[in-house]
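Intended use. Records like the one below are meant for learning the mapping from a protein sequence to its folded structure. Do not use them to infer anything beyond what is encoded.
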Amino acid sequence: MSDVSHSRRKLTTTAIHIMALDSIVNVNSLFTFALFLGLTWYPTTNSTATLIASADCAASSAIAEDLIAFHVYSFSFFLFSSLIALALKQAIKITTRGVTVSAATNNMAMGHLNTATLRFGMLVSATGSVFGYGFLVMALVDLVQIKLGVLGCGSLYTYAAIAPLVILVPMALVVYVFLVLHAFTR
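Structure written out for the chain above:
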């Protein structure tokens, strides 16, 4: 294979950044949609509408208030992260100056952006996503407590529902943070 055809297949750094920004926006959009669905459904702390056997284990109205607040915080961070990512993507497009067209980015001409600005923006966008995920997990923990009973009661069902949230999501966030930091240094 010749060097010319090999270089055509190789993605530019800018194309990789645009694909990363697109994926941040896409994932944040999915979570934002899920948050809207969660906000439209108002959970009740009424013990007859839950799966709690004992009234002592029913969630208080403070947990329901936290649920709504955490949904709003999560939505705010996802929206912030997506807007930063879209702004960076738009800045890359605006700075196009006769650069070659790449098939990997839907035949979009690629521009050059100050590397420090791009790195800072991607770091800020990733940080917004991480905080959004954190608040989403807290909202889901509150939802489980409303429907299955508060953590203090020691219900096996409550712990079984919350365990994957507090184990798997932080593990995925650690991987995400390390990948962002790796991309940040390149």
